[in-house]
Amino acid sequence: MSFFNRRAAVAALGMAAALSFSGHAFAQTVTLRLHQFLPQQAPAAAMGLIPWAQKVEKESGGRIKVQMFHAMALGGAPAQLFDQARDGVVDLSWTVLGYTPGRFNKTEVFELPFMGGLAEQSSAALQEYVEKYAADEFKDVKLIAVHTHGPGLFHSKEPIAKLEDLKGKKIRGGSRIISSMLGKLGATPVGMPVPAVTEALNKGVISGTTIPWEVTPSLKIAELVKNHTTFSGTEGLFTQTFGFVMNKAAYDKLPPDLKKVIDNNSGVQTAAMFGRALDEGDNIGRGIAQKAGNNIVALDAAETARWRKAAAVVEADWVKEVGRKGIDGAKLVAEARALIKKHQR
């Protein structure tokens, strides 16, 4: 064989090996384990997490597989989900940020009374806010999105038609801010994650709960209580914040094109998508309560103003509290409200 023929043969073998390696690499798939605390039929899962996973799988050409674990199937408590993703116990997790008090001090501003409105606009605002003012609170993970639920309201065994009706009632609060607000409004707050609400209502541990409409069907709330109290205006009494995060090492190990798939399904548009899912879930949950003939109390503007005034101390206390940690709370409140207004349509 001549020198040139040998070179051609070596080149051909090298090309074949390269093509084989390339084909093998392309054929490889990555399985990402996603863990969350709600049943898979809940709107956040059925209309948020599952469609997100399907979109990622499709856009990756099937090279990313998302394995879903609902209702804490892998063990632990909802408050541990963020750390499960951070520590690599799972690759992705979704949870309520308020389940870990004192950890997301700047993000917490969106939980203040009468802060949020429809989930889509509040979620887009929250994502932009976090990217600008609270990114350090997510530095240990790859942030997919943060979002909120829609307007928060009461679901209770006895009607809550005015501020005084709350006095002494044991009401579930979903975060320290919400529990603080309940106490300031005269209730006896009982903190617990949302999966515990059904049993707590059944056993009489609480006489009511603060949750948005969208989660009521999966918890059978409309069967357990017959009264629901809403507020005048677009804002709800309270809002909770959610974090959808990915293990940093799992993200870093992805090839550039698969990182791009994850990046394309992160950020403001993804946050808004989750918000839309929860807004749609609110309509479904309210419709179930109406069909059941439940009593839906709509507080008028004057009564809502009384609640706003009584709850204002929660915001003032929060500003003082975070100020002691070197955080300009008043500025963050103003920025959060400005971003919510920006994303309103």
Structure, described:
This protein has 345 residues and is α/β, with parallel strands linked by helices. The chain is built from 13 helices and eleven strands. A six-stranded mixed beta sheet has the order 7-6-8-5-9-11, with helices on one face. A five-stranded mixed beta sheet has the order 2-1-3-10-4, sandwiched between helices. The chain is globular and about 60 Å long. The protein starts with a helix and ends with a helix.
Keywords summarizing the entry:
345 residues; alpha/beta; six-stranded mixed beta sheet; five-stranded mixed beta sheet; 47% helix; disordered N terminus
What is the number of helical segments per DSSP (H or I, 4+ residues)? 13
Report the sheet with the most strands, covering strand number, pairing sense and barrel closure: 6 strands, mixed
Measured by DSSP, the beta-strand proportion falls in: 15-25%
One letter per element, helices H and strands E, the order comes to: HEHEHEHEEEHEHEHHEEHHHEHH
Through-space gap between termini: 75 Å
- Which ranges are low-confidence, i.e. pLDDT below 50, for 5 or more consecutive residues? 2-27
The helicity comes to 40-55%
Mean pLDDT: 93
Using the alpha-carbon principal axes, give the shape. Answer: globular
Could you tell me the number of beta strands? 11
Main sheet: strand order: 7-6-8-5-9-11
Could you say which structural class the secondary elements and strand pairing correspond to? alpha/beta
Radius of gyration: 24 Å
